[in-house]
C-alpha cells in the first residue's frame, strides 16, 4: 500500500480531490465509488469547488454507493442514497441517472444485493473507490471476521456500529439493524482504492490495517492484497504507525508526475 501522511483533514481532501480530478480528466465517464459519513466531506467539498471554478468537468462522471441501510423509507434523509445525492451528486451538477446503488427496500434484499454486485461489473467496474475505516478496522459494513472473499450482501450491524451511527438519527432505536454492503472481495475489484482516515481515534485501526498481518479480524488489512491501494491519513491517525517516517520519506521522493 502507498501511505500518505498529511497535516490535516483539509489537506487530505485536497489531495484526494486532485487525484479524482486527474482520473476524470483521463476518463470522463469514470465510475467513482463513494463513502458516507463525516470523514470524506472535505473531498466532496473540494470537488464541488473545482466544478464551480472550472477546474473540473464532472458532467460525465458516474457515482456508486459502497453500502445502504435496509428498511429506511424511500427518501429518508439518512438513507445513504439520500446522503450521496445531497453531498456528491447534486454539488457536482450530476443527475440521478449517473447514480448506481442497491435497493434497501427490495422485497428480497439478498437478491437485491446480488443484483447490485452484478450491476457494478456490468457497468465496467469501479475505477476509484473511496473508503473509510472503523475503529475496529471495518471497511464498508464488513465487520471484523468478514470473509476476505465476500461479495455484496446483507449484513447485521453490531451494536457498537449502531451506537456510532446514532448521531445521525434522533436515537439509536431509529438506526436500522441491517445494511447492504459491498463485500471485501467486491471492494478489491475496484481499480484504485483510496482509504481516508483522520483523527487519533482511528490510529490503532490504521496501524493494524497497514502494518499488521492480513487478518479477517481487521477487514481493512485486505487492502494489502490490492495492486493499487492508497491510504491517506492525517498526523493524528498516523500516530501509531511505526514506519511513519519511512512513509513520509518515500512519498516525498516520488516523482512529481506520479499520481496517487
From TrEMBL:
Q: Which molecular function term from Gene Ontology is one that the record holds?
A: glucosamine-6-phosphate deaminase activity
| Pathway connected to this protein | Amino-sugar metabolism; N-acetylneuraminate degradation; D-fructose 6-phosphate from N-acetylneuraminate: step 5/5
Q: Name one GO biological process term.
A: N-acetylneuraminate catabolic process
Protein keywords:
Allosteric enzyme, Carbohydrate metabolism, Hydrolase
The answer to whether the entry has keyword Ligase is: no
A Gene Ontology cellular component where this protein is annotated is: cytoplasm
Functionally, this protein is described as follows: Catalyzes the reversible isomerization-deamination of glucosamine 6-phosphate (GlcN6P) to form fructose 6-phosphate (Fru6P) and ammonium ion.
Q: What protein am I looking at?
A: Glucosamine-6-phosphate deaminase
Amino acid at each position: 500500500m502507498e501511505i500518505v501522511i498529511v497535516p490535516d483533514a483539509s489537506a487530505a481532501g485536497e489531495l484526494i480531490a486532485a487525484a479524482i480530478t486527474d482520473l476524470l480528466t483521463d476518463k470522463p465517464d469514470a465510475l467513482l465509488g463513494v463513502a458516507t459519513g463525516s470523514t470524506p466531506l472535505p473531498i466532496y467539498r473540494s470537488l464541488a469547488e473545482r466544478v464551480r471554478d472550472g477546474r473540473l468537468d464532472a458532467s460525465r462522471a458516474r457515482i456508486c454507493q459502497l453500502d445502504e441501510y435496509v428498511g429506511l423509507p424511500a427518501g429518508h434523509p439518512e438513507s445513504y442514497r439520500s446522503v450521496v445525492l445531497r453531498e456528491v451528486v447534486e454539488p457536482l451538477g450530476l443527475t440521478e441517472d449517473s447514480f448506481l446503488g442497491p435497493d434497501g427496500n427490495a422485497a428480497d434484499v439478498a437478491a437485491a444485493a446480488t443484483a447490485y454486485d452484478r450491476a457494478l461489473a456490468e457497468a465496467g467496474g469501479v475505477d476509484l473507490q473511496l473508503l473509510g475505516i472503523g475503529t475496529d478496522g471495518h471497511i464498508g459494513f464488513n465487520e471484523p471476521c468478514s470473509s476476505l472473499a465476500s461479495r455484496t450482501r446483507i449484513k447485521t450491524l453490531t451494536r457498537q456500529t449502531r451506537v456510532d451511527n446514532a448521531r445521525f438519527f434522533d436515537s439509536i432505536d431509529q438506526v436500522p439493524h441491517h445494511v447492504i454492503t459491498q463485500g471485501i472481495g467486491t471492494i478489491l475489484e475496484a481499480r484504485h482504492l483510496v482509504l481516508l482516515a483522520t483523527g487519533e481515534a482511528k490510529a490503532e485501526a490504521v496501524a493494524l490495517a497497514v502494518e499488521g498481518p492480513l487478518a479477517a479480524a481487521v477487514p481493512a488489512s485486505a487492502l494489502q492484497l490490492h495492486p493499487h491501494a492508497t491510504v491517506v491519513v492525517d498526523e493524528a491517525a498516523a500516530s501509531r504507525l511505526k514506519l511513519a517516517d519511512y512513509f513520509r520519506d518515500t512519498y516525498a521522493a516520488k516523482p512529481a508526475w506520479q499520481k496517487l
